Amino acid sequence: MAGRGYTIFDTAIGRCGIAWGEGGVAGVQLPELREIETRKRLFQLHPDAREMRPPEEVDVAIEGIAATLRDGNGDLGGVALDMSGISAFDQRVYQTVRAIPLGETRTYDEVASALRTSGAVYSVAQALGRNPFMIIVPCHRVLEAGHYADRISPNGGSVSKRRLLSIEGAQPTTSKTLFDVLLPVARPRPQA
């Protein structure tokens, strides 16, 4: 791969973007509501990349992403990632999450335990919130305790974890109700 580049490509859920560098894929952007917003986000994250035809290794990644978003059957295991500038902890989190099988989920706590850092649940959540490799590092397979499908990283565009999990045929997740959200912050009622 020569230089840093990016391209926009079609998938079953919309136009995605991918950026690459010498070490492999540098980032994936899932579709925003409009293609121009997807391009803008990709440019903000990779200002030194220029639009060009992807090299063969990136074409393989694009095919895997498109297949994953079509029916959940893409093979992304061999895609090289350019992890320059990513902390060692985040790299460990991404490697662990990449090993979660298709159709399965884990909680942030389970990922932290797999890393032997059980007190680092918040750090795991933060690392996945920074995940630049959407779909290749399937952070949508990591859920809150109680298996709630919470927010996806900013690179997820307008796509929800719930939608990605349904494409992969994962077990249904629980949604938080307004009651679940407000109960922890509600003032206790006085006892009469």
Written description of the protein model:
With about 190 residues, the protein is α/β, with parallel strands linked by helices. The protein has helices spanning about 35-45, 55-70, 90-100, 110-115, 120-130, 160-170, 180; strands at about 5-10, 15-20, 25-30, 50, 105, 140-145. The longest helix is centred in the N-terminal third of the chain and has 16 residues, at about 55-70.
Give a nutshell description of this structure.
The chain is an alpha/beta fold and 192 residues long. It is built from 7 helices and 6 strands, in the order E-E-E-H-E-H-H-E-H-H-E-H-H. The strands form 2 sheets. Strands 3-2-1-4 form a 4-stranded mixed sheet. A two-stranded parallel ribbon has the order 5-6.
What portion of residues is helical?
A: 25-40%
The tally of strands reads 6
Which structural class best describes the helix and strand composition? alpha/beta
Main β-sheet, in a few words?
Answer: 4 strands, mixed
Supply the number of helical segments: 7
Please indicate the percent range of residues in DSSP E strands (runs of 2 or more): 5-15%
Report the radius of gyration as a whole number of Å: 18 Å
Q: Calculate the mean pLDDT score and round it.
A: 84
First-residue to last-residue Cα separation: 72 Å
Side by side, the strands of the main sheet go: 3-2-1-4
